[in-house]
Amino acid sequence: MNSRPDPNESENPMNTPDLKVDALVVGGGIAGMQSALDLADQGYRVALVEKEASIGGKMIMLSKVFPTLDCCSCITTPKMSAVAHHDNITLLTTCDVQALHTNGNGGYTAKVQQNPRYIDADACTGCRQCEYVCPIDLPASYDLDMGATRAIRVPFSTAVPQKAIIDIEHCLLCGKCEKACPTDAVDFSQQPFTFNIETNAVVLATGFQTTPTDAKREYGGGKLLNVIDALSMERLLAPTGPYGHILRPSDGKEPESIAYVQCAGSRDQSLGVPYCSRVCCMYAIKQAMLLSGALPMADITIYYMDIRTFGKGYEQFYQNAKAMGIEFVHGKVARIDEDSEHNPVIRVETIENGRIAERTHDLVVLSVGMLPGENLGPIFDVQPADDGFAAIPDPTLSPSATGHPGVFVTGTASGPMDIVDSIIMAGAAAAQAAAYLETMRSSVAAGPTAIPEVAHV
Amino acid sequence: MTQDKEAARARTAMLKKLREEHKDTIEHTRVLLKKQQEIRRIISQAMKDGAGTVPEIAGASGLPAHEVLWHVTAMKKYDLVTETGRDGDYYRYALVEEASQ
Amino acid sequence: MSEKDIRIGAYVCYCGGNISDVVDCEQVAETLRGLPNVVVVRTDLSMCSDAGQSLIEEDIKEKGVNRVVVGACAPSLHEVTFRKAVARAGLNPYLYHHVCLREQDSWVHQSNPDEATAKAGRLMLAGIAKARMLEQLDTIRLEAEQHALVIGGGIAGLRTAWDAAQRGIRVTLIEKSPFLGGHMAQLETIFPTGENARQALHELIEKVVSHFLVTVYTNAELTSARGYMGDFRVTITAQPRGVAEDFAHFDEAAAACPVEVPDDFNYGLTTRKAIYLRYPDAIPNTPAIDWKACTRCGECKKVNGTGIDLDGKPQTIDLTVGAVVVATGFQPYQPREGEFGYGQFPEVVTLPQMIRLMTMQEGNGKLTWNGHPVNNIALIHCVGSREIPGVHEPQEDGRVNDYCSRICCTATLQMTNELHERFPYINLFDLHEDIRTYSRGHEDIYTEASKNGVRFLRFHGDERPEVTAAPPDDTSPLLVRVKDYLTWGKELEVPADLVVLATGMMPNPVSDIVKLLKITEGNDRFLLEVHPKLQPVETAVPGVILAGTAQGPMNIQETCSAASAAAAKVGVLLGQGQVSLEPFVARVNHDLCDGSGQCVAVCAYEDAIALEPVLVDGKTVQKAVVSPANCVGCGVCVSVCPNHAIDVQGWTLEQYEAMVDAITADLPKLEVVE
Q1: Chain C residue with minimal CA distance to A84?
Q2: pLDDT-based confidence at C672, cuts 50/70/90?
């Protein structure tokens, strides 16, 4: 079979039914992309499998990122581009790994299904004329349903690959897109397609999900229009956001008073999430800073239990936010209701004076936590631990090794962590995968004689 | 020529099969589309009558403000509506053909 | 190429609002349209995105653009990104010029958008002026030594060494002290897994030292370094150990040694002799002489003279390595005399001392300290961390530790749990600002501490607790005063038989290494990476990589991840046996060079430029010759050359002059901005 697939055909595995690589990376978010790049830059051949139509993961949805306040695109999009153009990386989008088997030689065979885009990816130029003629507007999950998209669309403006996809579950099959497409790329005949990837190492970077906004009844159970989650606020703050401004969803008003409720989904036994999600303190502070830049007259309050700004430069970031006039209130928010104008009303027991206060804001942001993403048990035999994230047998010295030789887990699939830590851990997984690949190679051709040596000079 | 005809026939059969497979979702989307067209008609009417901010459009149309915001956002994305300025805490929107007149 | 064939594409990036929120990018673009040689002008929300890069590629292929200028973020971020895009389209990557419109303009002129727009225009015009003069250059490709020097024998250095060696790269690991393992050897239980720290550490050390690609030198330091990525020439100086490997009379020799010094393994709680083993099963398991303490009295030799040599000389080892990994680690913050009563009251100890103290206490009966039974312990968080400039006393360098040390919260609560398990009768008071048990499994340690009845008190950063002597009739010798915000700001007094200070992390002092390798420290004194997300383990010096707590506070798990990430970078740099260096180095025009040698005299870098005999018209004359691999392109030689015979490639004097002319020219179009 074809052992050296042409990288130019990376978007069309139909021409390369079987693929042979050194490492298979599952998940095209920041951790998966970084692992893929760190392996490919060492000269290993990598297949990156992503189930969505574009790589970029959750990070590409963000506005600016802490602690440097770089615009998120400045960090993510070049990495997406590097993945797409790397000679050693075969990028496979809209693909699911359906099974993973050991191949008896220390490596693995992955059975992968590519789901149809209903678009000839080679022909599509990403011009979006199809999207403009599609008659149905649908809530855009990329904008947390605040904005609209269509049944045929390019996922988002910086998507990689920049190719259209048809959401067949919402398609009318009216054929308007077909007529509008200047390159005849619409192809309703596409079928799911299954193929095998032979690989020696596997890196699992399947990521996380956020606490659903309806998780907590005391916080309105997802029914309060002006209680949004922090990912929605990321979209509002992003230059590509749905409204083009920071507006509240109930009536499009520019909010004058915005509150953050910390630990909304973390450190909460009632939700079965006893752990800290590690990122919420910093992203709330970051958003508060960005908001006070965008809406200089707005009052911003952060209700918290503990502020956990533990990373490099993070504590200084927190102190800067305090100096900017962002109000930090030490207290646990007990309830959120709303008044007749849909203004959220927060009931909080402030710990500083022991009083129960009710405060009305224009907009409330829930600092939602990180929940486990895909269960890696059924397909990869990497079982979840009690917290739902991948169980790691030796978390101290080998934080990315699973119980299976050559199979590694990285990024938020192995527990909550921020982007900085995910990138470091992605590098770690790449190092260990590389070490595995080399030991496999040298076990075939035995290495030189060992000279154990501690020089006592 | 016969080849083309055969291809066309195969295509029709394929689409028919696809329509059959997705019968329920197509129907669901069709209902959604109808509802959406009706809302768009009401919103466009309210905007023709001079309404501009989301609460104004909501007041004039009788639609809930959050629904108006969603539709105006969608219409803005696909160039049917444009933003024309501010009014206090709110932004003003106009239909694109109105704006160009 | 004649001037009329030059076709410049100019691109102004919005940087997702970072630039366009201040600079009117469209107006800047308008200014550039129609300039001589400029055939394409575009703006984009994000030029570095795949779509943005594709614009450039298409313009090169379809519009015949042959010089590219992008105005965007700092070149340190994405200059290389755009060079790669240019190269993909078939153009020489050095026919690209990067203009900084963000750090150099929009970020620093937020309050003055009009002037910022005018400045952006000028910067772009200067870039275009330079672009007209760009010439094709080639990267300097060199053989890379597939050998890494790892500095530091703690967990970070060991983990990096292991991963790199497994990857197939030769490693020399040097450790300053006579023993491996660093601070991890001083721990007992690792949170949250409960493993034995030394056992886990020893397993790794055994694997590393027996790997056929690894050489370890203890008692060894880096004493000189020069060269560049792929070819660093380093000298290691190793002090003699003083004790032979087969020396079998350690106990007698130690008994004979009259010198007694504080034992740093126990953080000064105990003493040891000048001949010592760090701990009984320390690796290497051969005793060593502490040369700073040893008086060379020779008493130890009298026990068995053949195994001890007090007159050994340091040995130097010269190596060529392709990369250097700095894993020099941390030291616990040392409280000042009197800080929270430290050094003033014997009952005040640091958390690292407390960890050692716990191992010295036999059994689970009664805890005693300084002759008193211990019934009340107060543990104070954030000692030497989260300090506020202007509130807390600065250190000698004028700085306070304004960062969080990351590990101390969980370590402190782990200590309370251990104390509760072994001495359940002790009252435990935990005084904190915030509890930061952030990592996987750490919150459980906090929950357990709460269940154990630890009493939590919370202070504000600018109102830290005070440790004072208790009145003589009190049961406990100390009182800790704190304004507690869990009881609404009440002033409380906590009796304490022992006060444990949760001291933070400081980097080990490595100014010598910083100087030798020309790397930089951040404001927090930890070693500085290029960018936390783009190049998180790399320093500004290519080929010099960071691993572990030398870079910032981390726990063991995080250190291992960072160390492995460093190994991945070593693999990227050296794995293929070749490295590429930027071609921005000095170039001598031998037609103009008269061999004055002034350039050689001022050059600060070794072997970068030299006078060499060159054959001109049959005669041998001295001319300056550049060694591109050693030249950093600083341009000092350019400035002293009396004949203008030297230029830095890619940054020639002519190019600078064109840029200056463009910046200072009148810009009527831009000046009308109101």
Answers
A1: C50
A2: very low
Look at C565 and A276 and tell me if their CB atoms are within 8 Å.
Answer: no
The CA angle A190-A195-A196, to the nearest 5 degrees, is: 165
Distances (CA, A) of A82 to A108, B62, C184, C524, C553: 26, 50, 38, 33, 31
Output the domain CATH number for residue C36.
3.40.50
CA distance C336 to C393: 10
Which of A45-49, A183-187, B97-101 comes out lowest in average pLDDT? Answer: B97-101
Measure CB to CB from residue B90 to each of A146, A188, A252 and give the nearest one: A252
Residue of A nearest to C14 (CA): A239
**Helix/strand/coil (H/E/C) assignment for every residue in A347-364:** EEEECCCCCEEEEECCEE
Mean pLDDT, rounded, of chain C: 94
3-state secondary structure C216-263: EECCEEEEEEEEECCEEEEEEEECCCCECCCCCCHHHHHHHCCCEEEC
Q: Say whether both C443 and C524 belong to one domain.
A: no
Instruction: Give me the interface pTM, i.e. the ipTM.
Output: 0.93
Q: Are residues C596 and C553 in the same domain?
A: no
Nearest C-alpha of chain A: how many angstroms from C108? 14
**Is C202 an 8 Å CB contact of chain A?**
no
Contacts of A85 in chain C (CB under 8 A): 84, 88
To test the contact with chain A by mutation, choose from B70, B79, B83, B96 the residue with the greatest count of A C-beta atoms within 10 A, namely B70
Is it the case that residue A5 has pLDDT exceeding 90? Answer: no
CA pair distance C380, C71, nearest whole angstrom: 51
Same domain, C57 and C155: no
Q: State the total domains in chain B.
A: 1
* Number of domains observed in the structure of chain C: 5
Domains located in chain A, CATH noted: 8-115+192-207+373-446 (3.50.50.60), 121-190 (3.30.70), 211-370 (3.50.50.60)
DSSP secondary structure of C270-304 = SEEESEE-SSTT-SS-S-EE-TTT-----HHHHH-
Report the relative pairing of strands C323-326 and C544-546 from DSSP bridges: parallel
Which residue in chain C has the smallest CA separation from A452?
Answer: C210
**Residue A8 confidence (pLDDT) above 60:** no
- The answer, yes or no, to whether C and B have at least 3 beta-carbon pairs within 8 Å is no
- Single out the residue of A289, A295, A349 nearest to residue A316, CA to CA: A289
What tokens appear for C581 in the block? 């260096």
Query: Cα dihedral angle (C186, C192, C196, C200), rounded to 10 degrees?
Result: -90
List the single residue in B with minimal CA-CA distance to A135.
Answer: B33
Q: Name the band, by pLDDT with cuts 50, 70 and 90, for residue A444.
A: low
Does C138 touch chain A if contact means CB atoms closer than 8 Å?
no
Per-residue pLDDT at C87: 96
pLDDT for the residue A72: 86
CA angle C671, C672, C674 (to 5 degrees): 105
The pLDDT tens digits for A132-143 are 999 999 999 999
Does residue C389 belong to the interface with chain A, where contact is any CB pair within 8 Å?
Answer: no
Q: DSSP labels for A151-192?
A: SEE-SSTT-SS---EE-GGG-----HHHHH-TT--B-TT---
Contacts of A434 in chain C (CB under 8 A): 163, 167, 568, 571, 575
State the Cα angle at C605 between C599 and C611, rounded to 5°. 40
C408 and C450 in a single domain? The answer is yes
pLDDT exceeds cutoff 60 at A377: yes
SS3 call for A275: coil
How many whole angstroms separate alpha carbon A189 and alpha carbon B16? Answer: 11
Q: Any idea of the CA torsion for C352, C355, C360, C366, to the nearest 10 degrees?
A: 130
- pLDDT of C671: 42
Residue among A78, A438, A455 whose CB faces C168 most closely: A438
